[in-house]
Here is the input.
Amino acid sequence: MNAPDILPARRPIRELPDELISQIAAGEVVERPASVVRELVDNALDAGARQITVRLQAGGIRLISVEDDGSGILRDELPTALKRHATSKIANLHELESVDTMGFRGEALAAICSIAEVSVLTRTADAPEGHGWLLDGRSGELQPTARARGTTVEVRELFFSTPARRKFLKSEGTELAHCIEAVRRHALARPEVGFAIWHDGKLVAQWRAVTPDLASGEAHLDALRRRLADVLGEDFIAQAVAVSWPADTVPGTAAPSAGDGPRRLRVWGFAGVPDAARARPDRQFAYVNGRFVRDKVITHAARSAYEDVLHGHSQPVYALYVDIDPTRVDVNVHPTKIEVRFRDSREVHQAVHHAVEGALAAPRAPQAGQMPA
Ligand SMILES: Nc1ncnc2c1ncn2[C@@H]1O[C@H](COP(=O)(O)OP(=O)(O)O)[C@@H](O)[C@H]1O
Ligand SMILES: [Mg+2]
Here is the structure.
């Protein structure tokens, strides 16, 4: 029993300084420039933006700027927005359990501030014309400046204070591709919002806002069809069938918080015909209540709907949107919110399976693709 020499030296238990807590949290939220892009675009969408412009330099490593025309932030609340666990989106457990916004954890801006130089330029609608405010994240200095309603968040020199992390970044080209993919995922969920991406002064992608023709019973499917053609190419749509399940519902019409009873489970979107399948699963977009997710239940259900018509390892293409009552899905599973947990995953599996299978089996216009018998 003479083991004490292998015990580690006793160190006092101390609370970590705030800065370090934020840096640790940032490790979970911000892996690369694309993570910052995702968080900032989430915020812009939550603020009701109709046009979002992303400007990048050096693959986002030198600069990420996201400009929106949303609600803006009040001058007095601006410093709070950069604090940890500060959010306008939830206030209690009940609201957490039925959260309907992209953000709710109140940690993105604080995390980003701890690993980059951040400034926020913003103006709310009720501020007099031209009365915006510029907040420097590092110094906390607040200055009046002119701008239209909305917010621009600028993030410079990502990971400048954590060089070890910076070394993990890939080439500028690779980081840029990830940034574009992050915006693309948002764009596929929000046809009514216009997006533009600039890199080193050049426009690299632009998807104009699609105004749904509300006179049409299929307004949301039509708008989505146009956005999908714009983002993924006409081929995608030419070789896809519309998914809308159950048949007696109209996709996209439930107000996010209608308040009158639970929201019905609904699956809609577009599924590629078997001929459009690819070798890699790189065109499988799945959304839950407008949030891009990577979810085994949905992926498996979608693949199973192709079982009889796709053989081997061919990967179907699709953009599928699951609308579900927010109380039946937990989005607070992972800091990046890319994973969700369903209260009843069988129900979701069956819905996705039936929705896609039904769409593939339905007779369709003869001009595009071949359907299985
Ligand atoms: N682009 C924006 N427009 C308006 N308000 C914003 C914007 N970005 C951030 N905010 C405000 O700052 C708060 C903190 O943002 P964030 O750290 O991303 O946390 P969360 O999005 O989880 O609330 C938000 O709750 C919101 O009130
Ligand atoms: Mg956020």
Notes: DSSP finds eleven helices and 15 strands in the chain. The chain has two domains: 18-207, 219-361. Residues 39, 43-44, 47, 68, 70-73, 81, 86-89, 103-110, 151 surround adenosine-5'-diphosphate (ligand 1) (CB under 6 Å). Confidence is low (pLDDT under 50) at residues 254-259, 367-373.
